[in-house]
Amino acid sequence: MIMRDSPAIEAIDLTKVYGQGNTEVVAMRNASMTVRHGEVVALLGPSGSGKSTFLTAVGLINPPTSGQIHIGGHFVLDGSHARTNLTAFRRRHVGFVFQKSNLIPFLNARENVQIALELNDASPRAARRRALELLDNLGVQDRSEHLPTMLSGGQQQRVAVARALANQPSILLADEPTAALDSVTGRQVMELFARVAHEHGTGVIVVTHDQRALSVFDTIYEMEDGVLSRQLKETVV
Amino acid sequence: MNLALKDIQHNLGRFVLTTIGVGMLLMVVMGMAGIYRGVVEDATLLIDRIGADLWIVQHDTRGPFAEVSRVPTSLVHRARAVPGVTDSREFVYHTIQREREGKPFRLAVLGLSWPDDKGNWIPLVAGRPLAQNHFEMIADVSLGVRLGERLTLGKETYRVVGITRNMIGSGGDGIAFFTAADAEAIQFDASGEAVRLERSARTNRGLRSELVTKQPALIEQASKPSGELPAIARLQISAVMVRVAHGTSAAQVATTISGWSDVSVHTREEQAEFLLKGSVDKARRQLGLFRVLLTLIAAIIMALILYTLTLEKIHSIALLQLIGARKPVILGLILQQALLLGFGGYAIAYLLGQQMFPLFPRRVIVTGDDLLQLAVIVLAISVASSILGIWKALLVQPNEALG
Questions:
Q1: Chain B residues whose beta carbon lies within 8 Å of the beta carbon of residue A124
Q2: Nearest-CA neighbor of A222 among A56, A51, A39?
Q3: Cis peptide leading into B104, omega within 30 of 0?
Q4: How far away is chain B from the Cα of A203, in angstroms, using its nearest Cα?
Q5: What is the CATH number for A212?
Q6: Is residue A27 assigned to a domain?
Q7: In this predicted model, what pLDDT tens digit does every residue of B10-42 receive, in sequence order?
Q8: Is A82 touching B (CB cutoff 8 A)?
Q9: pLDDT higher for B160 or A202?
């Protein structure tokens, strides 16, 4: 059960070290971030700065070497030590949206959303209804029976957002979600993140290079050489 | 939602073609078992149908189905005199190859003991049994002859009066039934020149003989047909078939006959065993080994197909893991596809086999037991061949979806 009065996610002193000895590389150093429910956070930084390492750590895919992660009030990771079943926790409480190819190619738009619900033990009938509601909410219900290859980039991202929101996660993580989109569609997708965060009370972290849509974010972080720092929005925008 | 079916639906054409390929391979595996059954059935069919309880054959031989056997025709009468024997008949059997309509024409010639045996026991699909001592024949349909057709074999012409089905010799050649006398005539046919040379040689030998010096009139006998010469043995037959009286032990009669030092006697079961342990056994082992090899090849091909299908789905599998799919969901996706491929192929193999097997030159007999056995094998190779794909899928990490 998620506690809404707790932060959507709280990452404390995350450090990730790859290799050891002479080949040791510190990809992330003492990174801390707190995201409230309904807050939209942008994570900026050049390539290789450690943004994806941070995102996969808080997404419970690639645990940090040290530090703590709390999601929705649950103490999930203590360093690389999992305090719960990460796969099950991720299924229920974390949503993902990526740059491209993030839909299953042999499932249509509705099924791509429905599968996330069915994996979380929803009945096929209920999952179908909820999937159609989400697609309708995101403006792509008329494309619900189309395969991903028949959808535009923007439509694919909307379906991916619908899937990410399917199980009402505490936190939604997006990695360069507008990189493959034109500026107008990219802006629309960013606004969509802001809308779903506010409507669903989901904490959203978006890794982006796109400076054009930063006004939609509540908080902005920047990462450089594995060090995470909070920026003043007024300074960055 | 069944992910395996959704994936197949998405790549339906390719999956169907792959399944047809696997199906054709399995059809060959199925056919191998059927060919073996056919060989065994064909080999023992004659022994079973002809209904003899005992076979008297040349001494120390295993009978006409295993090797050359020659016994005198008088043996028929000797056998009939044994207590407990109700019937004894000549058995003449050999294979010949002639030419018909410009093509090789092989047939197994079987002589019936006229007039006791007119071929009434032969299951006819057209025509009638033999009705006269000479120049009639009953032919298996596989020989391709027509009812009423006349065939010249040796110096004589024989009319096809009956057509039978599934009467095949152990070598796979269709059987043609003649009277024993005609069968011998076909077997020992010699050209006119060969007869003339033999008679001439006989005369020359006679002229050098002291007997002819004392009785010059004997030399006139040398040029007569061999059948008219008492000093020359009559043509011989392959074996004598014996039927024992109801209630009499065949083993007891066999014990009596086995006391004769010039012949050997075998029961029907022994004859069948000689066949199955002789040439048929080698064919059985050959077909069995070939079947094992084909099964292995089918398993390897299926494994490679499933591995390739899994490789193509790596990104989807990573995505599924990322959104929290449990391992059984991923394993089920691959295993279900393996089973669908295996049993789809099996169904195609069965349906294709039903159409193809009757076209084979030798009989292909697919039994229920063989079908069940192959189904179990298909289940096993489907599971085994999916292991490679499952192993690959288990190595996939969710972060591979991010790339």
A1: 1
A2: A51
A3: no
A4: 17
A5: 3.40.50.300
A6: yes
A7: 888 988 998 999 899 899 989 988 988 888 887
A8: no
A9: B160
